[in-house]
Amino acid sequence: MFQSFDEIADFSQSAARVARLRDGLRADGVDGFIVPRADEHQGEYIPPSAARLEWLTGFSGSAGVAVVLAGSAAILVDGRYTLQVRQQVDLDVFEPVASAETSLADFLKNEAAGKRIGFDPWLHTVGEAKRLRTALESVGGELVALAANPIDRIWNDRPAPPAGRAVIHPESFAGSPAGDKLAELATAIADAKADATILTDPSSIAWAFNIRGSDVSHTPLMLGFAILRATGRPTLFVDPAKLDDAVQDHLAALADIDTPEAFEPAVRREASGRTIGLDPQLAAARLSTIVEAAGGTVAEMPDPARLPRAIKNDGEIAGARAAHLRDGVAVTRFLAWFDRQEPGTVTEIAAAEKLEAMRAEHAQEDGFPLKDISFDTIAGSGPNGAIVHYRVNRDSDRLLREGELFLLDSGAQYQDGTTDITRTLPVGEPTSEMRRKFTLVLKGMIAIATARFPKGTRGVDLDPLARIALWKAGCDFAHGTGHGIGSYLAVHEGPQSISRRGMAVIEAGMILSNEPGYYREGAFGIRIENLILTEPAAKITGGDIAMHGFETLTLAPIDTRLVAPELMTADEIAWLDDYHRRVRAALGERLDATDRDWLDAATRPVGPPAVA
């Protein structure tokens, strides 16, 4: 199993740890400290050695930040974690704060006026540090960069940094030679009028050098840094223990290789009298300080690998289609198995284990071993389904009971692609309210799947399409509609997203998720998710300008027992029936007779709509 169901988060020691932290802060001469969920690479995916927020608070979500002051402490989380955080932290120590309503900068302005607040400059981006400094100074406070993280001084059993082995990502899957990618990036650096830039995002390093790693769970990343130059060879800073002879030879043909300990001195030498590009959204604030102290100039420029990494090439697109076909067979086998189980006989963990086993079994049959799951499977039944990023453990595990909904959000890592799919399943007979809410969510998903939009459209422009049916019913969901997907990389990838914060233009070749939802606390959760590929803009008959559209990559049935056709238009029902015809055609011959019969029944037309 790639997933463990043991509960790791524990807030029983939070009070004592916060007390020790406060002692250290007094010694550092500061009135408080900011504890983000971050490492030096500012990514979503961090190793256990960087899980400071979880160690201090017990909160295990993928995003959040704590602020510890002399007499109070708070933890800020977004809408995905408003329920989870109250279950995982000591509420006598930490006050949960909704970050959608109160940003970290606003919180500091309200709670830390006139105070000196410490931060670890390796764990905050250039842009974030600037915002926090401005906020504090506006109320007479000061943001203080500490030379050492005070949590590390008291975390006596802190895990060692990861040393997972790196592997070469074959060009047949990467779609382009690493040398060509690096030449393209050098041109981008020169165009930005910089002498060099620093790649801090391990996904960018993996993409640019055609390598993959094993330093963080479920995401094939090798942690490290790289200095890329407008002219001259790049330098890659990575633990040599991660490189076998083949990987060493592959990388040595592309770049000079040095150790992580050599990184800071190398940045100082590189920066002297030169212009260094740093992505303000990704680069650690510490790097800006090093460059400027060495007599260099910081030029704000986006990570040059981020956009080309997001726009998949022909090889990556072919791999994504193949991976989704393979994954669709495994998921459909699971759905058929699940439907044969009696209510009250399957637990959340048992379902997650069965799905992973079926993925592994079919992937082996297909000749593409399952490399990993792409994130911990979200298997939430009944009230657990209302916790957006619920992670089942052996204490929270429960039976799937008659009359409940089961929300199953999962994904796989194959060498040719990364998948992410959510299906909501009825356990027994669903209520009319469940069917109504499911159909409103489905209408939003179909609206995104069928959208046509002109060049220059951003994710924020598309996001309301997924919500309008829910809005009309007085409902909404507190997460984005879609995130970018990597190519055997991170399941969450930027810059593209379909969300209220999705300011990046959606371009041909980008893969995104399409996953509206609805969550009723204490009762049930609903989410339907397919992955979609942005198609090149094309003329529409009778139209004036070319329009992009989406190709749906995910292939697995959507449970029609939860569909209320009377709430749908003819076009929406036509899309659902056409999608199911495509699923049958793609998967049918790859299933045994029993599962094929189930698929035929599960994808029957849903019936005529009540409205034209």
Secondary structure elements and pairings:
Layout: H1 14-28, E1 32-36, H2 52-57, E2 65-69, E3 73-77, H3 82-88, E4 95-98, H4 104-111, E5 116-119, H5 126-137, E6 142-145, H6 150-154, E7 167-168, H7 171-174, H8 178-191, E8 196-199, H9 202-209, E9 211-212, E10 225-229, E11 235-237, H10 245-252, E12 256-258, H11 263-271, E13 275-278, H12 285-293, E14 297-300, H13 306-310, H14 314-339, H15 348-366, E15 372-373, E16 378-381, E17 404-410, E18 412-414, E19 417-418, E20 421-427, H16 432-449, H17 459-472, E21 482-484, E22 493-498, E23 511-514, E24 517-520, E25 524-527, E26 530-534, E27 550-552, H18 570-587, H19 593-602
Parallel strand pairs: 1-5, 3-4, 5-6, 8-13, 11-12, 13-14
Antiparallel strand pairs: 1-2, 2-3, 7-9, 8-10, 10-11, 15-18, 16-17, 17-20, 18-19, 21-22, 23-26, 24-25, 26-27
Can I get a quick summary?
InterPro entries: Creatin/AminoP/Spt16_N, Creatinase/aminopeptidase-like, Creatinase_N, Pept_M24, Pept_M24B, Peptidase_M24_C, X-Pro_aminopeptidase_P. Pfam families: Creatinase_N (PF01321), Creatinase_N_2 (PF16189), Peptidase_M24 (PF00557), Peptidase_M24_C (PF16188). This protein is 35% helix and 18% strand.
Instruction: Give the % helix.
Output: 25-40%
**Gap between N and C termini:** 48 Å
Whole-angstrom Rg? 25 Å
Say what oligomer this is.
single chain
Sheet/helix structural class: alpha+beta
Classify the fold: give the CATH topology of the largest domain. Answer: Creatine Amidinohydrolase
Question: What is the correct CATH architecture of the largest domain?
Answer: Alpha-Beta Complex
Number of DSSP strand runs: 27
| Beta-strand percentage range | 15-25%
The chain-level mean pLDDT equals 96
- Major β-sheet strand ordering: 4-3-2-1-5-6
According to CATH, the homologous superfamily of the largest domain is Creatinase/methionine aminopeptidase superfamily
Molecular shape? globular
Main sheet record: 6 strands, mixed
The CATH class designation of the largest domain is Alpha Beta
Number of domains: 3
Q: pLDDT below 50 for ≥5 consecutive residues: which ranges?
A: none
- Number of helical segments? 19
